[in-house]
Amino acid sequence: MNSLETPSFPSRLPKVGTTIFTVMSALAAEHKAINLGQGFPDFPCDRKLIAEVNEAMLADRNQYPPMIGIAELRNGICQKIQNLYGHHYDVDTEITITAGGTQGILTAILACVSPGDEVIIIEPAYDSYRPSIELAGGKTIAISLQVIRDERGQVASYEIPWDQLAKAIHSKTRLIIINTPHNPTGMIWSKNDLDCLANLVRNTSALILSDEVYEHMVYDEVQHYSVASHPELAARSFLISSFGKTYHVTGWKVGYVAAPTALTKEFRKVHQFNVFTVNTPMQYGIATYLADAIHYLSLPAFYQAKRDFFRAGLGKTKFKLLPTPGTYFQCVDYSALGIPQAKFNEADFCKWLTTEIGVAAIPVSAFYEQATESGVIRFCFAKQDQTLTSALQRLEKI
Ligand code: GLN
Question: Of ligand 1's atoms, which has the minimum distance to the CA of residue 102?
Answer without folding.
Answer: 9
